[in-house]
Structures are given as structure tokens and as C-alpha cells.
Amino acid sequence: MKLNLQPKKPYKKLKKKIPRINFSNYQWMFCALFMLICSYTGQAQNISINFKDAPLERVLKEVAKQANYEVFYTQKLLKDSKPVTISVKNSSLNETLNQVFKNQNLKYTLTNQTIVVTVSKEEERGNVLIDIRGKVVNSKNEPFPGVSVTIWGTNRTAVTDFDGGFSFEKAPSNGILDCSGLTIEKKSIAINGRTDLTLVVEDKIAAMKEVVVTGFQTISRSNFTGAITKVDEKTLNENINTNLSSALEGRVAGLMFQKNPSGAAADKPILRGMGTFSSQVGYSPLLVIDGLPTELTLDDINPYDIESVDVLKDAAAASIYGSRAANGIIVLTTKKGNGKMKVSINSDFFIAEKPNLRDMNYASTSDLIDFEQAVYNRERARFANTATMFSSYGDIGNSSMKYYSPLYQLNRDLEEGVINNADYNSTIAQWRKNDYNKDYRDNVWQNEFRQRYNIAFSGSTSRQNTYVSLNYDESKNRIKYNNSRAFNLYAKSSFQLNNWLNATFGVNGTYSNDDVTDSSYSNYDIQKRYERITDDNGNLVISPFVGISDGFTSGSIINPYVARKISTLSGFKSTQFNVLDALKEGIEQQNSLSLRTFANVKAKLWQGLSFNTQFQYEVRKNDNEQYYAIDSYKMRMAINSLTGYNPTTNAYTYVDGFSTGGRYKQYSSQASNYSFRNQLDFNQDFADGKHSINALAGFEMRETFVPRSIEQLRYGYDPVTLSSAVLNNLALSQTGVSSYIYGNNRTLSALSRTQQEILHRYFSVFSTASYTYLSKYNITGSYRVDRADLFGVDPKYKNRPLWSTGLGWNVSNEDFMKEVKWVSMLKLRATYGINGNIDQSTTPYITATRRNDNLYQSLQYTNITAQPNPMLRWEKTQSTNLGLDYSLFRAKLNGSIDVYRKYSSDLLATTDLDPTVGALTRRINAGALLNKGIELSAGSEWYNNGDFRVASNLVFAFNKTTVKKVTRAQSSASVYVASPADYFRENEAYNSLYAYKYGGMENGYPYVLDENGNPSITFDANGNPVSTSIKTVTNPDALVNMGSLIPTYTGSFSQRFSYKQFDLNFLFVFSGGNVMRKETMDLGSDLVNLSGIADRYTDTNRNENTRLYVDFDESIRNYAATISSQWRNSSANVVDGDYIKLRNISLGYNLPKAFATKIKMVSAKFTFQVNNLWYWSAAGNHIDPEVYTANSGTRNLPSPRTYLFGFNLTL
């Protein structure tokens, strides 16, 4: 039945506008009291109306208008009403209404400035009492906890729970429900005999009404004191996201994603800086799905299954998770059904360009040839003849054989008379035209193409709520023959078994299959730049040798002279190579199955009191297979390595069975975990909402188990018959066999003989509570004690509690703020608490590995792997947070400001020990870190004229991480320079860039200064280094701390323009405050390929550049590595790491709703997007800090531009 709550105009337009009058304080109080009395008695209104046979509805509207009341009724009630004839003047409201309803089978009541029309007592005889249940949600289907639902005309009121739910027993079937709350517009709904109802209410202030999810509870932001950022479904779906990490990038202040510069691993989320020294603990926030922690990563989760993401930052928000909360929490809430069955279809297509190698700052092929020729000439000059020089590279039967390049071989052939000068010059001229990098890009790389399809079914009834999604994801990756396929299933159903019992069950499974080529062929520099992959006609160019070993035996890389010799011996395999052939060999099949099942049963025990039990089980299984055929490059090289040959008898000796087939390797691993939680929840308002209490308590059990892996390795394998050879693996792996090529024994790799299983169990008890008074003042607290199996034996460490407390003040609810119209919402927050971290690689017990020595089987021995730590305890993080949430100018500008301090102590760090205890170092709780920062967010839809809308959002975060305590001092400067993430200095930034203080340069030789300001090189009168003066600077006091390698500030700016059905979105991300080393050439090596080689300093080309190794004076060449290291790591070669990127730009088109309805659709949206379109870097020189190894100063492949197209259809 249609409700006529607002027939044509909003109720507020039925009210009279009362002009503001200035009174004295006492007059105002008297007037307010008088008006309050009048509103309750209904006697003060003067009603004058005159109607004859008018419809009841028309009469009621006029009465309500004159009385400054609202009127509530349903069309069904008025359907059989009688026309009204009435004429009154200056009559009271009650008197007027009595005459209006005199001959009607209806009655009225006056409640809260509203005239409520109901059936008369005679009609009520047919009214049936029923049990009803319902839910209060907003337009996004987000629940509203703490809202009052009242049956009209009675004092029966229910307060919605965390899920927005409420229920009444024996409610009138034709009654009316009124929904009211501080942050919502009042809403009423007729029961009309329904037992399941959903009240969709409008928000008064979006920032105050927002419901946040901590995983343990769902609570209104107005009652929450913690620092939390919510990313809703609308924001998540603004762009086409490659994964959930990209969906969150730039949306949460303080959440940064540490990029893997080479792209070989997923981005790592880091929240509010580093909180531990231990990689075993990890730096990423704990991931929680629907209330329970998971071992999955963000990239494992289908983003289309996620309804919202809540990021818990401070102790008040996260400490309920105890020993896993120090890095923060990311809580994912999955989707559920809502109303009628709905089908949502998504299809996305991604095309990523090949990376541009022009940004890699490489020298040209011609310059590289000239440089390598200069290197050859310099080396050749040190020997009397060619034979003497090349003897150092080894011949057949030489175990110290070394690789040399085709250019070296060309020079050798020239000097030995194999070719003449014309042949030499012709070959060099041709080589100058070649570009192996370009060949690799054109022939090995391909534009990445990814296609993703998702279909979801969702719906709900009064007794059931169901959501099911199917997702298929397929990718053709950059390197040919590398493919990925993944299928994901997610299903969840909730059942309302009765009014007090609800059960939810679900499963989430992913099966993936990847084809991965041999990583030996993944680099475009595996051959010299002047070599080729294909000729101008596209035919393969076969190289007679290549500098790649087999990787299966102890045989090293051969040189071209040896390759040429064995090519004449029929018993050896060919050494020829082409990368396009090799890529097809040894492709690894990686299969993975991940399964998560979960159940949740919730029982309402009493008004406001409920019991909740949850269980989750996760398992992941990986199976990898790899096969190299007998004629593959690596198998050919392995067979050659283990082949014996007698030139006198021309007899060959082979390993029995080894060369009869290929190599097959299989590896299987598995991991599982479960979580079981029971808790009591209490949520109740008292004294008409004056007091509000939200509390829970419970316990949790968790177990993680990693069984031993299963591995097998077979040689002589035939994939058709599945047969393989039986080898003497012990002899082959330990003593090996005689090799003709290398002149001594060569061994064959065997499987690892180490087996391990990992089992950990945890038990926790926890509680949390919040109290709100007058919807203005909040106080919260939480308490948790965690126990683990391998943990400290001292009770004072085993039972150390992790806790938090917080205060909140809803300033905008104060009376003195009512006249401040431009402030829609203002809330102050303050929290303090202690979180923890756990590292199970350290234990209170001595740990050891029992072994059998394979050479002497009868003997057993034990390796001690770790000394005991009886004082082991949780890593502890004390967190203080001051925050402000605001909504200004009628909610046009919304955001928050947070200032925090995180002090992490008892951190596990390597500490020097007294050698008499049996070990030099031990990881104990001895370190400390301090994080201090500020976070800002601001968003506004600052222009909206209906058709055209403009919205902006700014996110900014600053964080500084300082090492406050470390107990292991290093005496060598080089370790701080090379590994700043492993070696620390007190009161300096974590992961600092340390540099030698640059002194200057003489004749192309750079030098640095020691701790006393003395140069590392002394020069003679001619400006040449004195070899005996060159020294290595070793004192750490000589180093200069140039700043943090980790960005100290991050942020984003997003801009949205909407015009009618079109949406245009821009997302800029920025980062900075950190430093990086410049890309510099290695002065101590001849293996350089950067563009500066042609303009290097030489005796004939004196400039501001440095010399390279080829041009070093012979007397100091042994010191070149020292000079190079100190130059490359000097303060002269440091640049800023700041950058701005246009991460993506997207254009979306929403099909007009009227047209979508005509074609039987609810909605349709089409999106085109471009990622990585533009960036600016303070470092310049085409350096992209995101894909740059900052401490070593190494470029990696640039982020490719990606084009995306997607559409969403809802049926």
C-alpha cells in the first residue's frame, strides 16, 4: 500500500515560519516554556476553516497547516472516509479535529507535533496482533544502530542493534512505526500486516550518521572515539581497479603502499609508519574480513565482493585485536543481498603498453661497442700476445673457465688470422646497427592484456539474505608465454531462523593457474646489445653460445672458444641459443587453491543483549610443476657438464639414465588456519536516549598450521610414459662425476634435505565498552590478553594486557552551537592505548635441527638454530591520538584531522651478547621506534546545480619514524651505507640514507672525507692519486645522514566532474620528503652501459665527469672498487624523491534510468580509463621514484601506461 507521508511537498512546508524575536533571557525562557506547554495540549491553536463536502485529506492538510503540525495517514485509511462539512472560527485544534472526525470510522492522536490518523475502536476489533521485525538503513543500505523505533500511540520503543535491526512482539497489524534519532530525519511507516519491514531513512549529517565497522562491532561514528577511515562502495567503484590495493590508494590518510621497484612482488600496505624492526612480524596492517582475521592479502580478494573498507588506525580502534594490532587494521565488509533478486554483471578489459626503454638512460649500441673495444685494448696491452691473454679465460679442461663476449672473440679471430680487417670492420659496422634491447622489446615482450568478468546474484526476503558472485580473471603478461587464469567463487547466506536467532554461512574459494617462464630469460640484457634475436625478415638469429649456465649442475658459464671446440665433438650437445626458443622451455605450471569457509550465529538473549559465535577456516594449497625437455638449452648444457670424454679413444662417458630424458620437478605446499570467537554484545539506551551503552566481551582461539612440503625431482623423465631414470643422487650431489669440459668433477643438484612443520596456537580474552551521554560525550575502553604457545615463560610477560581508552565530545550537539549554522558537525577525539606485535621466529626455548650427515650416515648431530629467550614478550606500541571530525556549510565540506604519536618498544632486535653464553648475537626485546605524524582529509561537493556537479577530495599525511633505541652498534661504515633497513643508529630516521661526505675531484678521480675531514685520496703535484694514500673510510662517524629513504609525506587529490549522465574523475597521488641516490656508473667495473660512457673523463677528454675503470692509472686499478663505492655512495650523488603522478583519469557514462528501465535493466554504466598518464619527479632525468631502487640508485622498468574499459549492468 502506498504511504502518503509527503503527498506533494515536504512536511516542513506545511509549517508556519515563526519570525525570530529578541527577548531577555527570562522572557525567552517563559516563552519557550509556554510554547512547549501549548505543543503538548493542543489548546492554543486558533483554527479557522470553512468546507462543504470536502475530502477528508484536503481538510486535514489545511488544519495541519494552520496549527503548524504535520499529519500522518495512509491512503488505505482515507479510502472509505466521508466528505467533511465544517465551519469554525478561532477554534482550538482539538475542538476542530473532533468535528472533523465526528462522523468518520477513524480517530486521531496528537503526538510530537503530528496529527496521526488511525482506525476507530470499532475498526480495531479486526486488528490482528503480530510479531514483526525490521531494519533501519540509509539509501546505501548501511545499517543505523542506536535509532529509536516506536509504535504510534503507545510507549513501546525498541532501539536498533548494530545491524540496524529491531523487533516487536504482538504489534498491531495496522499500526504505525515511527523512527527517530539524532542524526536522521524522522520517518514513519505503516505496518499493513507485514512481518518484515525495512525503513530507509535520510541522513541529517553524513559524517555523524556514518556507521564504522571494527570487526568486533558495528557502531555509529558519533559514539566512536577512535581514528578510523571508511571507504564506501561508491568510492571503491569510482574507477576501474586492478585490485583492492589500487582501490584504496589515495583514499586513506596515512595508508601508503610500498611499491616493489622491480614489480616482482605485490605492493605492501603500511599504515602510520614502521612499527617494528622484524620482517618476521611484518609491517602491513592486519586484514580482517567480516570480523575475523585472515591470512589472505588485499590482492587475493575480489574487489567486487567488498561493500566497504574500514581502516583502524589508533589504539582505541585497533587494540581489541591485541598482539596483531600494532600495524593497524584493515576491515573488509562483504556485500549482502538487499530486496528483490538482483543480478550485477561487470566486465573489465586492461591493456598495458610495453615499457619504454628510452627512459632507462642506456648508452647507444655504437657507444657500447666503442667502450668495450677500449676495454679490450686496455686488457690486451697488458699481455705479450693474444694466446697469453686468452689463456686466462680458460680452455677445455680448465676448471676456472671464464666467459668473454662476442666482441672479444671477434678481436681474437682477427689477431689469430681467422678473419681479416675487412671482415672485422664489416661485422662491427653491422653490429652498430643492432639493438638487442629493441629486439627483446619487439619479440619477447607483448602488450599485457587482461580480461575480468564478474557476475553477482543478490536478494533478500524476510527470512533469508543471499549473495553469490562468480569471477573469472585471465591475463597475458608482458613476457610471452606467461599467462594467468583465476576463478573465484563467493557465496554467503543469512537465515532468520526466528525472531531471536540468525545464522550466516558462507564460502570463498579461488583457483588459479599460472604459466611462468624460466626467470633466466626474463632480462633483456642476457646478451650483448650488438647481438640480435631475429633478422630483418623475422627469422631467428641463432647465437653459438650465451652467458647463461644450466643451473642444475656445478658447471659454470663456458666461453665462445670452448663452445666452438665442443661443437666439433659429436658426443656433446649443441650450445646454440635463441631466447624465443628458450622461453618455451621449462615453463612452470603453478596451481593454487585457496578456500575460506565461515559461519556466524547470533542469538538475541534479552533486550539489548545478544550472543555471537563465529568460526572461520582457511586453507591454501600450491602445486608447481616444471619440465625441461632433453633438447632444451639448460638440459643440453647440464648433459655437457657431466659428460666425460677421452680424446685418445674417442670414448664418451655419460651418467646412466641422465641423458635419456628431461628434468621434471614437482613441489607442493599447504597452509591452514582457523579462528573461533564467542562474544556477548550489549547495546542499550536508557532514559529516552540520555544514556547509551555499547559493550562486548568474549574469547577467541586461533591456530595456524604449515605441514611439511612435498617435493620430487626426476631426471631422464619421459612425459609420455611418465618414467624416469634411477640415479645415485648421493654420489652425484656430493662427489659428482668427471667432466671433460671443466677438467674436474662436477656435481648435480639434489632436493633439499630439510623438512619442517610449523604449528602455532593462540588464545585470547577481550572486552570493549563505550558510554555516550546526551549524544554529546563519549568514553570508550578496551582490554585484551593474548596467550601463545611459544612465548615467554615469565607470567608477567605472558599475561601482559593490551588496552585502550578514549574520550569523545560531539561539540556540535551542544546548545551553544545551535546558532553556529555553518558548523553542521564537529567532534573532538582523544585516545591512548597499547597495541602489540608477535614474532614466532623467536622463542623462550632453545631450538635446534637434528641432521644426518650424508657422508657418514651413522652419525647424527644437532645444529642449534636459536638460543632461548625466557624473557620474550610482545612487541608493544603505545599510541596517542588527538582527532577532530568536521562537517561544515550544511555538510558541503567534510573531513578530519588527526595528530598522533606511536612509541614502539620491546622490539625484537639483534643484540650483541657476551661470547661466553655460546652465541655472539641474539634477537631479544631491546629496540624502540617512534612515529609522529599528522593526517588531514577534506572533501566537498562544492558545486551542484542539478545537472552539473563538481567534487574534490584531498588526503595528506606526514609521518616521521625515528630509531629511539638499538643495542647493536656497528664499527663499519659500509654496513650502514649498504643495508640501512637492517642496521640503525639511535635518534636518527629509520631506514636513513647514509653517505660519505664528498670532498671533490681531481683529474676525474673523486674522493671523500673521513671523520676528521681528511681526504680519502692524496694527489701528487700533477694531480694523480698516490696509490699508497688511498684508503677506505670505515668509521661510521664519517657518514652523513642525508635523510629518510621512506617518504615522510604522502597524499592524493581527486577531482570529479559530473554532467547529467557523465562522470569525469582524476586521481593525483604525491609523495616526498625522502631522498635517493643518483644513478651513477660503477668506476670499478668494465660492465657499464649507461649513456655517460661516451663522455667520460679521459686524459684526452678532460671534463667534469669521472673516469671509468678502463681509464684508471695502472698503479691504482686495485683501488678502483674502493674509489667507486665511496663515490657512488657520496653526498654528491643524492637527490630528492618527491613526485606527483596522475594515477588515473576515467570517463564514465551512466545509461539514463528511463532508458534502462525500457530495456529491462536497473542501471548500466560504461567506463574508459587511463592509468599512469603523467608524472613529475624532483630527481629529473626521467627517474620515476616509484620504480627506482633508492638506496642503490638503480632504475627499473617504468610503469607502463594502461588503458582500461569496463561496463556494469544491473538487472
UniProtKB/TrEMBL annotation:
One of its GO terms (biological process) is siderophore transmembrane transport. Its main location: membrane. Keywords: Cell outer membrane, Ion transport, Iron, Iron transport, Membrane, Receptor, Signal, TonB box, Transmembrane, Transmembrane beta strand, Transport. One of its GO terms (cellular component) is cell outer membrane. Signal peptide: none annotated. Residues 69-120 form the Secretin/TonB short N-terminal domain. One of its GO terms (molecular function) is siderophore uptake transmembrane transporter activity. InterPro entries: Beta-barrel_TonB (IPR000531), Beta-barrel_TonB_sf (IPR036942), CarboxyPept-like_regulatory (IPR008969), Plug_dom (IPR012910), Plug_dom_sf (IPR037066), Secretin/TonB_short_N (IPR011662), TonB-dep_OMP_SusC/RagA (IPR023996), TonB-dep_OMP_SusC/RagA_CS (IPR023997). It is a multi-pass membrane protein. It is found in: Cell outer membrane. Belongs to the TonB-dependent receptor family. This is TonB-linked SusC/RagA family outer membrane protein. It comes from Flavobacterium nitrogenifigens.
